[in-house]
Amino acid sequence: MKFEIHSDTSFINEGFLKKPTWKIKKAKIGECDSYEVFYSEDPDFKLDSESREHQKDSIYMEMAKVWSKNSRCKRMQVGSLIVKGKSIISDGYNGSPSGFPNVCEEDDVTLPYVLHAEANAITKLARGTQSSDGSTLYVTLSPCYECSKLIIQSGIKRVVFSEIYRKPESIAFLAEAGIEILRKKQ
Ligand SMILES: [Zn+2]
Questions:
Q1: Nearest 10 degrees: CA dihedral of 127, 59, 165, 152?
Q2: Three-state SS for 159?
Q3: End-to-end Cα spacing for the chain
Q4: C-alpha 127 to ligand 1 mean position (Å)
Q5: pLDDT category, 165, cuts 50, 70, 90?
Q6: Integer-rounded Cα radius of gyration of the chain
Q7: Ligand 1 centroid – CA 44 distance (Å)
Q8: pLDDT computed for residue 29 by the predictor
């Protein structure tokens, strides 16, 4: 079997672990300081929080956190960046689509038209000339199922997040698609 559950996945809620359909190969392959690697296809992956790549992850995650402050959503502000090579090629935060009132909730319930931060960052690229193929997505909250589908189809190869969404099964879904998944806690 390609995917198997690692026994010490205490960070993921019980609902996820009990769900046999969503198994994840080596749910956590390493942890150091504020850094966790949930899944990597690279057999030589070395966990080193001092590495240049991980330092960049920290900086981009901080930037995504700052960017989330643009959101008008009251329940949760989420920020996202898409990085390819050395460039930020797109950004997004959760909010309403263009032309709609800039409110996210009604009676404390999120409105159905609200776009998530990563969906905004991915769809922004559809208007431009940059391609997300092979890029890294930074998002302050782990992607939901709907956004995970967009991530897979847009060719994003790496997802770095900070907080875990209340429905974490989509983390396994991304892993199953061969996307490297890392958590950079803040
Ligand atoms: Zn989403």
A1: 40
A2: strand
A3: 34
A4: 20
A5: confident
A6: 16
A7: 31
A8: 67
What would the pLDDT profile of 11-43 be if each residue is shown by its tens digit? 444 334 333 334 444 456 677 777 787 777 777
Are 28 and 9 in contact by the 8 Å Cβ rule? The answer is yes
Distance CA 150, CA 186 (A): 25
Contacts of residue 65, defined as CB under 8 A and 6 or more positions apart, other chains included, come to: 79, 140, 162, 186
Structure confidence at residue 148 (pLDDT): 96
The residue from 36, 118, 169, 180 that is catalytic is 118
Parallel, antiparallel or unpaired: strands 30-32 and 158-163: unpaired
- Report yes or no: 108 and 154 within 8 Å, Cβ to Cβ: no
Instruction: Judge contact between 168 and 13, C-beta under 8 A.
Output: yes
Residue 41 bears catalytic tag: no
